[in-house]
Amino acid sequence: MADGTHAGSHGGHRSGEAKILDHNYDGIREYDNPMPFWWSALFWASFLFSVPYFVYYHMGVGPTLNDNLEVEVGEFVEAQAAALGDLKPDAATILTLVQNDPKLKTGASVMFRSNCATCHGPEGGGRTGPNLTDDSYLNVKTPEDIFTIIRDGVVAKGMPEWKKRYSEPQLVLLASYVASLRGTKPAESKEAQGTPVPAWSAPAAGSASASGDAPSTGS
Predict the structure, then answer these.
(1) CATH of the domain at 149
(2) Do 135 and 41 sit in the same domain of this protein?
(3) pLDDT of 99-137, one tens digit each?
(4) DSSP code for 188
(5) Which of 33, 80, 93, 197 is the least buried, fewest Cβ under 10 Å from its Cβ?
(6) pLDDT class of 5 with cuts at 50, 70, 90
(7) What is the rounded distance in angstroms from the CA atom of residue 115 to the CA atom of residue 63?
């Protein structure tokens, strides 16, 4: 009876009925049910799409995902700067932003993590670059110097210039974020480098320097 049923199932199955395959694993039989066309089509379409996607985004043909992120962050910071008005790279502006609502510098913090964290650490504690959270600096004596270093870089020390990538208001916001890192306690930090700099205080109206007569070292 079993043989007859088996033979009937294979020998003369009606059109539209699923065919039972010949193999048998511990009494378990398997129907020959191919994947639906739409499922196979989605699979192959996804595979074919991945090839140009990989070439475009990972082989240097088009912008990388990091490039797109930097553009979006730059636009966000630019919008923040526009909302704050005409930002000038002076001590009064930078230190005022330091004391401002942290939400105003959200874009600057993202910009720091995207561009500066590799050398200075995600919290500014320093890696190959110096620690930005202590009171000692290599090239900074005034808040304006932070802006100058970010803008022009210190090429000999591996610090790139950012003036070609970001606008002046964006760099002012980034400088204010770096200035706000002073006195924070990152989880990891390097030893102090450079010369101790007195605490900054907002300059009086018309003053050109935020730290008395101390000259700026520039880059």
Answers:
(1) 1.10.760.10
(2) no
(3) 876 655 777 888 898 889 999 999 999 999 999 999 999
(4) S
(5) 33
(6) very low
(7) 16
Residue keyed to tokens 């202590």: 134
- Residue 106 exposure: Cα atoms within 13 Å on the Cβ side: 8
User: Is there a domain that residue 51 lies in?
Assistant: yes
User: For residue 32, what are the β-bridge partners?
Assistant: 19
155 and 186 belong to one structural domain: yes
> Is residue 217 included in any domain, yes or no?
no
- CA distance linking residue 140 with residue 146, whole number of Å: 6
Q: Based on the structure, what is the number of domains in the chain?
A: 2
Do 139 and 149 form a contact (C-beta atoms < 8 A)?
Answer: yes
**Cβ contact 65:57 at 8 Å:** yes
Closest CA to 166 of 104, 102, 116, 93: 116
Residue 205 lies in a domain: no
Average pLDDT over residues 56-63: 80
Tell me the two tokens of residue 26: 């511990």
Residue type, 218: G
Are 119 and 192 within one domain?
A: yes
The answer to whether residue 140 scores a pLDDT higher than 80 is yes
Same domain, 53 and 91: no
DSSP codes of every residue in 60-114: SSS--HHHHHHHHHHHHHHHHHHHH-S--SSHHHHHHHHTS-GGGGHHHHHHHHH
**Interatomic CA distance for residues 139 and 4, integer angstroms:** 93
Task: Kindly state whether residues 81 and 174 are assigned to the same domain.
Answer: yes
Tell whether the model's pLDDT for residue 197 goes beyond 90: yes
Q: Which domain holds residue 93?
A: 65-196
